[in-house]
Design brief:
Layout: H1 3-12, H2 18-35, E1 58-63, H3 79-93, E2 97-99, H4 109-118, H5 122-139, H6 155-169, E3 171-174, E4 179-182, H7 183-192, H8 208-216, E5 221-231, E6 236-238, E7 257-266, H9 272-277, H10 286-296, E8 298-308, E9 312-318, E10 329-332, H11 338-342, H12 353-356, H13 362-374, H14 378-382, E11 391-398, E12 405-410, E13 422-425, H15 431-440, E14 476-477, E15 480-481, H16 487-500, E16 504-510, E17 515-516, E18 529-531, E19 537-539, H17 577-580, E20 581-585, E21 590-595, H18 609-614, H19 625-632, E22 645-648, H20 656-669, E23 682-684, E24 688-694, E25 700-701, E26 707-709, E27 712-715, E28 718-725, H21 737-743, H22 746-755, E29 763-764, H23 771-784, H24 801-819, H25 823-840, H26 846-856, H27 861-870, H28 887-890, E30 895-901, E31 904-911, H29 917-926, H30 928-934, E32 939-945, E33 949-954
Parallel strand pairs: 1-2, 1-22, 10-12, 22-23, 24-29, 30-33
Antiparallel strand pairs: 3-4, 5-6, 5-7, 7-17, 8-9, 8-16, 10-13, 11-12, 14-15, 18-19, 18-21, 20-21, 24-25, 24-28, 26-27, 27-28, 30-31, 32-33
């Protein structure tokens, strides 16, 4: 072997390589676990940790709950976890007591679908997935307090999920107090006569079932028969938020149909105003706030009753009550409860043939049309371009303003999900109503004077005329006239008139619907509810919690036929008779009861997990008040309280985030917590994307086996297409963190993911570019450690001024970047400093080397720990103080000032940053190059922008 090769071989033993990185990372991960480095104490002392830590300012940093997939992590998954870890480490080093941990959202459909296919119990597969994910995350060096971790499937956890459900069940929303109160206070109001029962009977005359029915109309968690989104392919019903815009299930992409089933609901609509108003107190992206505002959908208008015969009335909500005289027909959603009650046995005499749909009776027409409507998504039903369909119910209502009889139709363009599920149709002034009226040959009346030359007869129009800035016409009858009024005044007048007669009132409506809370599946939290022989629901006492899932032989619901809308759900729990039927003593002696056989949705466990992180081992309370107040209580700058930083995807804007806010507010109202919002600051990280390669059939091919040549991409000799998209196993473009850790080390992966671009922007993965961050760590290592001997090379000499300036500018810049989650630019500044030190040559001054290591510690903690120890420190770098910049070295010694004449640069001056306008003007005018350019010409004006610009305007 030559001397050169021999030397290279010796040097390799102390060079920073993937093998060395693996050794360093494994040793320090073991050290952190053994020493409890990330153990975060509570103020009550119930969780061990540094007692002095609770005297520091706190920082609660959270990631959105991960779901443990059987496929494991790809490199896109840890992006947010690495970011919060960097931020948490930085905050520990800047003197904060940091709570940072991670649990697992483990109930839900994926594990159950796998159980259906394989027979494997969901708990078995889920716990295996959790262990795999824990190992992958540990390898990344994430500084979580693992004592605070849990999974939603732990009975000790979902005991409290069930307890919170009971708090909601046993509460009602007091509109006068604007908060939730215990249901007993409502019962007391009925008993005392302060509040009337729905039918006017005294409370004492109602039996137990009748009282339960009355209270159920107010409870924040209630069961009702209502139209729901039924998904046969999943065997369960879905909340509106879980159905895509094209009417399919968000998970699995199965068709979703409308069906009427008895289900549990959460009365989230009671909190609509507060959910809207309290957004102003949150530091959230405006885009997320806007999505929530739009989803809640507050609108002001009027409720109006249209009598139907002597026994019924159709109630509508409208924001254009000023057009009431123009209502010439009505439309109910096909699912509306009133339809069956008003449909007559036969068509009224003279019924227009086009109204009947060719059916012999109204009942036949309605039944057939309902079946057609149930097979359509809400988006399909409301599509503007589609032909308007519907059918006459055979019933007539009375316009309360004009006294005219108007026919009542059902049509799919009216949805139960908005308003009352009924509309007064004003075809002259609404495009959808106009199209329907044309199709069904219905009358139209102009009641808003057109501002163009179309005239006032809608029969001559091509479309409706809509305006908020016009006069009302043709709107007078009896005791009310709106003629000549503007829209605003007409709204006020007709609303007052309706209220005086008790047939309407001004009201506020919301797009938000109550949250459908039942799922006909096995793998979810059981409801802590049982039913007596009269069907009355009873809450189980706290002593009987948790209600654990029983063993079942078959995890599947009754049907998996995705196109069969007529099926009915049969839950797996309902087939376990020994579990369903039980004898319990609920305080009045042993009785037979039937358990609720639906389970809670997978969102339930993630509605409150931030609270359990605070106090995970508390067996007596959902969270101790001292811990909650310390970590999440309101404080200066955070009036609503909540988590200091919550990082996750924007896709949860109207699902998890809205649900969690609702649960949190109920717990606040009932006095269990001091904060009225769960998450103070929200940050949405972008997505790591990857190229997807597809063959001529459109099938994805393994990205790792694609070759690039001559400007094209080839797989096994065949040219393939390339498109940037998501990363995933099914797209055959997933790269696992294990692969990158094995080839370069976890610190390199951390740096690369943080350096790819701004955290909130999606960016493409490029394995070839990872090596850039690997080389940065190699240069950092070389600047401190001799690759030949393994010895530290620093000296105790004082650094020169140029090095001090480079160091302190880096410290200042990195500090600002860390505070603002700009990790990509922080890495750029560390790189710039490290390059400066490399170019300077010679051993580093100890004071510089140590601060360089401390700057690197949040980003690449393993190599930082190793270098810190080699620099002679025995304590972990995790709790060292972050460097502080000296302002004297941050300010540039000189600044380049540009001198322009007629917009052209004629000189560049090196001046002090603090130079005054007067001084700078004198220097510019005295410059030889400027004097030459002026050529003796006079000066009309000098514009000075110290210290960087002087603009001279010659006479």
């Amino acid at each position: 072997m030559s001397e050169t090769n021999s030397a290279a071989g010796a040097a390799a033993t102390h060079r920073y390589t993937a093998a060395m990185a693996a050794d360093i990372e494994a040793r320090w991960q073991d050290f952190w676990d053994a020493e409890g480095t990330y153990a975060t104490p509570n103020p009550s002392g119930d969780l061990a940790g540094s007692a002095a830590a609770v005297d520091r300012p706190k920082k609660f940093i959270m990631d959105m709950f991960p779901y443990p997939s059987g496929a494991g992590l790809h490199v896109g998954h840890p992006l947010g976890y690495i970011a919060t870890d960097v931020y948490a480490r930085f905050n520990r080093m800047t003197g904060h007591n940091v709570l940072h941990t991670l649990g697992f959202d483990a109930f839900g459909l994926p594990a159950e679908q796998y159980a259906v296919q394989t027979g494997t119990h969901p708990r078995v597969s889920t716990e295996a997935n959790i262990e795999n994910m824990k190992a992958q995350l540990r390898r990344l060096g994430l500084g979580h307090d693992r004592r605070r971790s849990f999974a939603t499937i732990d009975p000790d956890y979902y005991r409290w999920t069930q307890w919170i459900f009971l708090q909601i069940f046993n509460s009602w929303y007091d509109d006068e107090a604007k908060r939730a109160r215990p249901i007993e206070t409502l019962a007391e109001q009925f008993a005392s006569g302060r509040r009337q029962t729905p039918d006017g009977r005294p409370w004492a005359e109602l039996n137990a079932a009748e009282r339960a029915d009355v209270l159920g109309g107010y409870r924040l968690a209630y069961a009702s028969d209502a139209p729901v989104n039924w998904c046969p392919g999943l065997g369960t019903v879905l909340a509106n938020e879980e159905v895509t815009a094209d009417g399919r299930s968000e998970r699995g992409n199965f068709p979703v149909f409308k069906a009427k089933l008895r289900q549990w609901n959460m009365r989230i609509t009671a909190y609509a105003d507060r959910l809207l108003d309290d957004l102003d107190a949150l530091d959230w992206p405006e885009a997320i706030k806007l999505q929530q505002r739009n989803w809640i959908g507050r609108s002001e208008g009027a409720r109006i009753d249209f009598p139907v015969g002597d026994d019924h009335a159709i109630t509508v909500f409208t924001t254009r009550q000023d057009t009431l005289f123009g209502a010439t027909y009505m439309v109910l959603a096909p699912e509306h409860d009133l339809v069956d009650a008003i449909v007559p046995a036969a068509w009224p005499e003279g019924t227009h043939q086009v109204w009947t749909g060719g059916h012999a009776t109204p009942a036949e027409a309605v039944a057939e049309y309902r079946k057609q409507a149930a097979a359509k998504s809400d988006v399909e039903r409301q599509a503007e371009a589609k032909d308007k369909t519907g059918v006459f119910t055979g019933a007539y209502a009375t316009n309360p303003a004009s006294g005219e009889r108007v026919p009542v139709f059902i049509a799919d363009y009216v949805l139960m999900g908005y308003g009352t599920g009924a509309i007064m149709a004003v075809p002259a002034h609404d495009s959808r109503d106009f199209a329907f009226a044309r199709a069904f040959e219905l009358p139209m009346r102009c009641v808003v004077e057109p501002s163009d030359d179309r005239g006032t007869d809608p029969a001559d129009w091509d479309d409706a005329f809509a305006s908020y800035d016009a006069k009302i016409v043709n709107s007078a009858a009896g005791t009310v006239s709106l003629d000549g009024l503007g829209v605003v005044d007409a709204k006020t007048r007709i609303t007052e008139w309706l209220a005086e007669r008790g047939i309407g009132e001004g009201t506020v409506n919301f797009r938000l619907r109550d949250w459908l809370f039942s799922r006909q599946r096995y793998w979810g939290e059981p409801f802590p509810i049982v039913y007596d022989e009269d069907g009355v629901a009873h809450a189980l006492p706290e002593s009987m919690l948790p209600v654990e899932l029983p063993e079942v032989d078959d995890y599947s619901p009754r049907t998996f036929d995705p196109d069969d809308a007529d099926t009915s759900p049969e839950t797996p729990l309902s087939r376990n008779e020994d579990w369903v039927h039980v004898e319990l003593d609920l305080g009045d002696g042993p009785k037979r009861y039937r358990r609720e056989t639906n389970t809670m949705p997978n969102w339930a466990g993630s509605c409150w997990y931030e609270l359990r992180y605070l106090d995970p081992h508390n067996a007596a309370q959902v969270v101790g008040p001292e811990a909650e107040q310390y970590w999440m209580g309101p404080r200066e700058g955070q009036t609503a309280g909540g988590v200091d930083l919550y990082v996750g995807g924007a896709e949860h804007a109207v699902l998890h985030l809205l649900y969690a806010r609702f649960w949190h507010k109920v717990l606040f109202d009932l006095g269990h917590i001091s904060s009225f919002e769960p998450f103070h600051k929200l940050f949405n990280q972008g997505m790591i994307q990857a190229y997807v390669y597809r063959d001529s059939r459109g099938i994805a091919v393994p990205a790792a086996e694609v070759e690039e040549r001559d400007g094209g991409y080839y797989y096994q000799g065949e040219q393939v297409s390339r498109l940037l998209g998501k990363m995933g196993k099914s797209l055959k473009n997933a790269v696992t963190p294990d692969e990158i850790c094995a080839e370069y080390g976890a610190d390199t992966l951390r740096l690369y993911e943080m350096a790819m671009g701004p955290l909130d922007v999606s960016r493409p993965w490029d394995t070839r570019a990872v090596v850039g961050q690997y080389r940065l760590l190699q240069r950092l290592w070389r600047n401190v450690v001799d690759e030949d001997t393994g010895e530290v090379t620093v000296t105790d000499a004082e650094p020169d001024e140029a090095t001090l300036r480079a160091l302190h500018k880096a410290i200042d810049g990195v500090t600002q970047d860390m505070e603002n989650l700009r990790f990509n630019t922080a890495i750029a500044k560390v790189t710039e400093l490290n390059n400066h030190l490399t170019k300077a040559g010679g051993p580093l001054a100890r004071s510089v080397a140590e601060r360089l290591v401390l700057l690197t510690a949040p980003l690449a903690p393993h190599i930082a720990e190793e270098l810190w120890r080699r620099l002679g420190h025995r304590a972990t770098v995790v709790h060292e103080s972050f460097p502080v910049a000296d302002p004297a070295y941050v300010v540039d010694e000189t600044v380049t000032c540009v001198v322009q004449i007629k917009g052209k640069v004629k000189a560049r001056l090196e001046v002090a940053p603090s130079v005054s306008d007067e001084e700078l003007e004198k220097l510019a005018l005295a410059d030889a190059g400027v004097q030459s350019a002026l050529g003796g010409a006079g000066i009309r004006k000098v514009i000075v922008r110290a210290p960087k610009l002087v603009n001279i305007v010659p006479a």
